[in-house]
Backbone:
């Protein structure tokens, strides 16, 4: 039994409400992203949030650097039922007004709030409005008080110090994050925290980068912890669009069987390949995107040839394999010959049939 399992036996993870969702012990792992529009630009921010929701995002965070953004936040929280988190630095009034504007959670650093009475005031309003608070540490902005510690202990202790400030005011609806750009420090810091307190953890690798390398780094960093049942909500931070972050987050959860959806497997191709597997896999992903949000499980194989493809893909619920003249769609030992331009329609028909036969 790993350490984290042992600690989970000692204490249950606290359930924390974030708007109409709950994270905590045995709850779904929720995927977050953050808008990158100017929050005061209501139209762009609203469009981006809509896009995020359509792609399966569970929680959206917006930056609140000024009071114009709070005005926008008020309208945003009225428009959407998805929990909105307000990200605030330094200004306690922005925190208070964001909670009043309907933020389900605020992200602050209590160490950056100038006076104790200001923090007390934030906590009081958060309690009144049943908003939760995320605190935490980041390898890029660690306070010098922690500079002589091992990096992962510094991250852990810095986050725990913020927790203790909130606890001092009787506040317990806390979510903690400890993010590092080093996968190893990130892993150790989150374990360090999990072994000491039972608040839910928000996982992510900070400044993970762009494109594939950012996704790989995040997947390893987040995946290692989730595999040990550490982490209750995740954000894949990428130098890319927020929708990309959400898709990557959902893929991480699906890979660990923590979320149901369309699982596409495809062959690596070889000299036997008779269809453009890369192109077809991309299309299958696009055609099946709508099924991905149904919380239903289906495995689809995209294989380059019939000779080996049908055998190699037999664990899938539905498969496609390339032939000399097009493709075959196979399932339960049944083969249907299709022309290339028929693949989409027949595949979707077979997916519908599959879900109809395998009702929840
Ligand atoms: S399924 Fe066919 S094309 Fe794909 S790797 Fe196997 S043998 Fe090669």
Residues:
């Amino acid at each position: 039994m790993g350490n984290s399992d042992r600690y989970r036996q000692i204490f249950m993870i606290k359930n924390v409400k974030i708007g109409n969702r709950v994270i905590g012990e045995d709850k779904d792992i929720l995927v977050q992203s953050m808008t990158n529009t100017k929050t005061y630009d209501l139209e762009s921010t609203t469009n981006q949030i809509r896009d995020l929701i359509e792609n399966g995002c569970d929680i959206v965070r917006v930056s609140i650097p000024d009071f114009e953004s709070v005005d926008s936040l008020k309208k945003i929280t009225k428009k959407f039922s998805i929990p909105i988190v307000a990200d605030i630095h330094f200004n306690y009034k922005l925190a208070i007004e964001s909670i009043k504007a309907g933020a389900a959670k605020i992200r602050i650093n209590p160490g950056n709030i100038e006076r104790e009475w200001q923090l007390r005031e934030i906590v009081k309003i958060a309690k009144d409005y049943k908003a939760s608070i995320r605190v935490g540490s980041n390898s890029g902005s660690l306070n010098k008080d922690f500079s002589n510690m091992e990096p992962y202990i510094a991250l852990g202790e810095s986050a725990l110090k913020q927790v203790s400030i909130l606890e001092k005011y009787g506040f317990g609806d806390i979510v903690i994050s400890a993010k590092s750009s080093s996968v190893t420090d990130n892993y150790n810091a989150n374990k360090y925290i999990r072994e000491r307190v039972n608040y839910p953890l928000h996982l992510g690798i900070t400044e993970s980068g762009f494109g594939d390398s950012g996704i790989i780094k995040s997947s390893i960093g987040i995946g290692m912890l989730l595999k040990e049942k550490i982490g209750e909500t995740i954000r894949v931070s990428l130098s890319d669009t927020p929708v990309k972050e959400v898709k990557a987050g959902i893929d991480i959860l699906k890979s660990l069987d923590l979320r149901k959806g369309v699982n596409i497997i495809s062959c690596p191709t070889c000299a036997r390949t008779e269809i453009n597997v890369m192109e077809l896999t991309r299309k299958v992903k696009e055609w099946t995107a709508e099924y991905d949000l149904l919380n239903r499980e289906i495995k689809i194989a995209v294989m380059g040839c019939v000779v080996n493809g049908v055998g190699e893909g037999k664990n899938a619920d539905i498969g496609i394999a390339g032939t000399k003249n097009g493709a075959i769609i196979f399932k339960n030992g049944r083969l249907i010959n299709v022309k290339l331009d028929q693949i989409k329609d027949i595949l979707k028909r077979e997916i519908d049939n599959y879900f109809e036969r395998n009702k929840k």
